[in-house]
């Protein structure tokens, strides 16, 4: 898949989630709850899951991020080591990023992110970013400090860039460097009052070739520089029961990027993403798994 050392460099987005299963969401106030199957901490935030997803699809993958010298960081290091995913880590003084995910019986998730771990002054070494980016076909950038400061370095190095804006409201200026500095932009429709207007603005103001708005069970919408109305790509029914939506968006992005780096058109890429996202919904929140290339291609062929 090219002469570069890596097909995909994932920048940022590593961390540990503590999974708490709750009887319903939103969770009514009570003095206490008895929780089953229990409370468990496991490595895997957005960058980890994208790295897992593209690696499982056979893409040569490397992950670069700032990680703490702590027990949570050990979990992140083991996550990559056990799955054969290359990891270059830079010390994070505030400690490894963490979150608590409340997961309801229907698989819906509410994430509580610990915002005290990172600071605006955190930086990745410029020479390190340049070197890894120059040796990669594509870079997927998480919307975490210090990744926004690395974007100009990625542009200098030359690989294509993607990002996931997650639940951006279309207005928060923090997301704009990512939105306008990426060639492929993923965004959830969850907080967008006018998804189409936001998609058009990203195309008009930035360098994006395609904007993908994901809408959960409603599927996804594509808009490219060719113009026109967004193309709707339906969601794919999972082959197994839905147990958790955590990581579905990251899996979608992984499938889409696999299609793009394989030379597929955007609509086909979105189908790859839909299949990968559906698979992720069948994986318990306490586990980490991703669809492999053979399974993905077989399911896409069956749907085509």
UniProtKB/TrEMBL annotation:
The record's GO molecular-function terms, alphabetically, read:
kinase activity
Q: Does the keyword Repeat apply?
A: no
- Entry-linked InterPro entries: Carboh/pur_kinase_PfkB_CS, PfkB_dom, Ribokinase-like
Task: Describe the location of the Carbohydrate kinase PfkB domain by residue ranges.
Answer: 202-289
Which keywords annotate this record? Kinase, Transferase
* Bilayer-crossing regions: none
PANTHER family to which the protein is assigned, alphabetical: RIBOKINASE, SUGAR KINASE
Q: What is this protein called?
A: Adenosine kinase
Which species expresses this protein natively? Streptomyces omiyaensis
């Amino acid at each position: 898949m090219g002469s570069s050392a890596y097909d995909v460099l994932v920048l940022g987005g590593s961390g540990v989630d503590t999974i708490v299963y709750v009887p319903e969401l939103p969770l009514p106030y009570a003095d206490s709850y008895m929780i089953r199957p229990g409370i468990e901490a496991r490595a895997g935030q957005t960058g980890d899951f994208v790295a897992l997803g593209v690696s499982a699809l056979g893409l040569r993958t490397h992950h670069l991020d700032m990680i703490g010298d702590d027990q949570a960081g050990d979990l992140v290091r083991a996550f990559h080591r056990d799955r054969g995913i290359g990891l270059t880590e830079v010390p994070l003084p505030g400690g490894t990023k963490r979150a608590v995910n409340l997961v309801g019986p229907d698989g819906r998730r509410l994430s509580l992110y610990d915002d005290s771990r990172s600071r605006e002054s955190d930086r990745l070494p410029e020479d390190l970013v340049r070197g890894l980016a120059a040796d990669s076909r594509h870079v997927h950038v998480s919307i975490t400090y210090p990744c926004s400061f690395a974007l100009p370095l990625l542009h200098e190095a030359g690989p294509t860039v993607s990002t996931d804006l997650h639940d951006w409201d279309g207005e928060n200026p923090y997301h704009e460097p990512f939105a306008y500095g990426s060639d492929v932009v993923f965004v959830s429709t969850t907080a967008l009052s006018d998804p189409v207007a936001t998609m058009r603005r990203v195309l008009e103001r930035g360098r994006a070739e395609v904007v993908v708005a994901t809408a959960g069970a409603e599927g996804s919408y594509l808009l490219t520089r060719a113009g026109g109305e967004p193309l709707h790509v339906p969601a794919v029914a999972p082959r197994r029961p839905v147990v958790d939506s955590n990581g579905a968006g990251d899996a979608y992005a992984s499938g889409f990027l696999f299609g793009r780096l394989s030379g597929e058109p955007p609509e086909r890429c979105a189908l790859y993403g839909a299949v990968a996202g559906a698979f992720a919904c069948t994986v318990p929140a306490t586990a980490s798994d991703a669809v492999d290339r053979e399974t993905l291609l077989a399911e896409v062929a069956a749907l085509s």
